[in-house]
Every structure is written in C-alpha cells, then in structure tokens.
Design a protein that fits this description.
By secondary structure, the protein is mostly helical. 70% of the residues lie in helices and 0% in strands. It is globular and about 70 Å long.
C-alpha cells in the first residue's frame, strides 16, 4: 500500500500517513460491519481516497497541478502485478547510490518490510533515536535530490546491486531469526525477501551474487518447518527432523550455486554443506572450515569469525573450538553478543564440564534477544545443572 501510494503521489509522508489512517478506519468499521471479502483491496482503496482528499484540500498551486495529473490514476482499481512492481521500484529507490549504504538498508527495511525503528536500530547496533534520524534524512534526500521512483535501466543495475542485496539479506535474516521479541520466525518477512530476491535474479540472471543470495535464502528457509516443535520451542540443527526439510527448495538452491565467488555464494555453499548432510554426523565440517576461511578473507566480520571458530571446534575438537572462540571474544567486536557465551557453553557441555557450561549459559541469558531462544538456553542450563 505504501509503495503504491508513493508511486502515485510521489509523497512519502502522505503515503505512510494515508496507509496508517486506512488501518485505523478498518479497526472501527470492520468491528461494526465485518471484514470485507478482499481486505487488501479495501484498505488500499481507502488509503488512495484519503490521499486524493488531502490533495483536493491542498491550497498550494503545485499540489493542485499534481492533483490534476494523478486524479485518473488514483481512481483506477488496484492491480496485483502493479503492486509487486511497486515494491521492487521502492527497493531500488531506497537503494539509490546517492544515499549512504546504511541509510539505504534502514530505509528499505522500514518502508518496504515494515520493520519498526527499534528493530532496525537493534540490527545495526545503534540507538533508536540515531536510526530514526537516519531514516528521516534518507527520505528527505530522496525528495530533495529528485531521485526517480523506478527500477533503473540495465546499465545502472550493477551500482545498485550491493545495497539491494544487503537489504534483502537483512530482511530475510529478520524473518528467519527475529532480532527481538516473543516470536523467533517471521515467515512473512522471509517469504517477502525470497520473492524480491527472485525478482532481482530475473533482472540480473547472470549475476552470481544475486543467485547466491537467493540460494542462501532457499537453503536456509528449507528448514523452517523443523526449526520449531509443536509448542513453538526452538529445535537445534542437530536435533531437527531432516525429513521435514523442504527438498524442492534445497534442490533449487543447490542449482543456483556457481560462478564468481563472493560473500553470498560462499554463505550459500556453507548452507549447502548442512542441507546435503543426511544426518548431523555426516556434516562435512572440514569443508565448512575451508569455506569460512574464504569468507573471512572477503568479509572479516566478527560474526563470520565466530562461526568459523565454531566450525573449527566441530572439525578439530571442542577444546580447539573453545580456544578459537576465546580469540574472537578477546577482539572485542562481539561484546554483549549472547551467542559468544552460548557457543562456549555448548562446547563445554559436550566436554562434560557442566559447572563451567552452566556459568556460560547464565551469561548468555543476560542478553538473549528472543523468548524462544531464552527458553532454549534455560532448558540447556537445567540440563547441565542436573548433570
């Protein structure tokens, strides 16, 4: 709805305000009259009518001219294909190279995906007020610089690709494993990220990194039905029922691997190591370490080095893994990140060092962001305390 109104009116604030008002109207009318047969079309129509009313009431001459230009389009019925195209246009508009990379990602997550400002701030590890200002400045820049609302022509696609892929990657991650809250998996966000990634691959079929990101999403998301049990509790990779993995998604993801090696192709290859293993014992951890070595050379982020340390522990022994995790922790890049003590706790548990493991689980519980993960760590803590 927001992206459609932005295309029609060219006014970001008007689009967001009228969309919010449409939902407020629905809360009142649907309780009284019942939910309409096509709720999405009802909401979009109400939002478009609100936008038209505001333009009609405007006294500014430029607004009057805009009203005349868009009147007919506002009165046209909503087309599903146009809505899908509007989302892709909005992604590329938000990812214009005139904007700083972090602003591109933040604005797209806020406007296209509907993530809240606190959620985006958490993903970037910055204060909420800082993120709010970043988003406001990005919107102002788009308006003041006259950035066009469109999917750019083919010769301009490469310069936008990095920002677009970064946005879709973070969007999928928030859907696959939420950054905070009571719910671990937000399937709607993951599905939207996959849909948009497919659209990018269709635009740039020869771009290995676009294919790599789509492959990564498909391979990771193939496990969605096995990641939570019937009570909504987290199930680790080792304990998942692999017969519940989506084999069609795995096969599609594997078919997208290959070409120039970049971070997304490497991450997809790592996901393929797990997707190809019929059971946990068959996981090729040696290959995983080699892939992490290559990934760390291209993208030496603290999270990559932590995952590499875990893979080393699984390949070369838990004591070695503990030493590697300690090196990562000593670098200071992951201070306060709950997965550092959680990873140490897991290796200590496997080594039978229950008292030390319990201390690390308690440490991890101090900063765990979601309720399902917190409950999982509590269960682990109870297990090691019971010996």
């Amino acid at each position: 709805m927001v992206s459609t109104l932005i295309r029609i009116t060219g006014d970001w604030s008007l689009a967001e305000d009228c969309t919010a008002e449409a939902f407020e109207t629905a809360l009142d009318r649907w309780q009284r009259d019942g939910v309409p047969r096509s709720p999405g079309a009802w909401l979009t129509t109400v939002a478009k009518n609100r936008a038209l009313d505001r333009l009609r009431r405007a006294t500014n001459e430029a607004r009057k001219l805009k009203e005349v230009a868009i009147m007919n389009e506002l009165d046209e019925p909503v087309d599903v294909e146009d809505v899908a195209d509007d989302r892709l246009r909005l992604v590329f508009t938000c990812c214009h190279p005139a904007l700083p990379l972090e602003a591109r990602v933040a604005l797209t997550l806020r406007t296209v995906a509907g993530l809240t400002t606190p959620e985006i701030a958490h993903a970037f590890l910055v204060p909420e007020a800082t993120m709010a200002q970043r988003i406001v400045r990005a919107k102002r820049k788009i308006v003041n610089a006259g950035i066009p609302y469109r999917v750019p022509p083919a010769h301009l696609l490469p310069e936008r690709l990095g920002g677009v892929l970064a946005v879709l990657y973070l969007l999928f991650n928030e859907g696959y494993s939420a950054s905070s809250g009571a719910v671990l998996v937000r399937s709607d966000l993951a599905a939207e990220a996959i849909r948009l990634a497919r659209a990018v691959v269709e635009l740039m079929p020869d771009e290995p990194e676009a294919r790599g990101l789509l492959a990564l999403m498909l391979l990771q998301n193939s496990r969605r039905d096995a990641r939570l049990d019937a009570d909504g509790e987290l199930v680790t990779l080792d304990d998942q029922d692999r017969s519940r993995w989506d084999r069609a998604a795995i096969d599609e993801g594997l078919g997208l691997l290959g070409g120039r090696v970049g971070p997304y192709q490497l991450q997809a290859a790592l996901a393929a190591v797990h997707a190809s293993a019929p059971d946990p014992e068959s996981t090729d951890w040696v290959s995983a370490v080699a892939l992490y070595d290559r990934l760390a050379s291209l993208s030496p982020t603290p999270v990559v080095t932590l995952n590499r340390a875990i893979a080393i522990g699984m390949a070369d022994g838990f004591e070695r893994g503990l030493a590697e995790i300690d090196r990562v922790a000593a670098s200071g890049g992951l201070d306060g990140y709950y997965l550092v003590p959680a990873a140490r706790a897991d290796f200590l548990r496997r080594l039978g060092r229950s008292r030390e493991a319990a201390a690390e689980y308690r440490h991890a519980l101090e900063s765990v962001p979601t309720e399902p993960e917190r409950r999982f760590l509590v269960r682990r803590l109870q297990q090691v305390e019971a010996g």
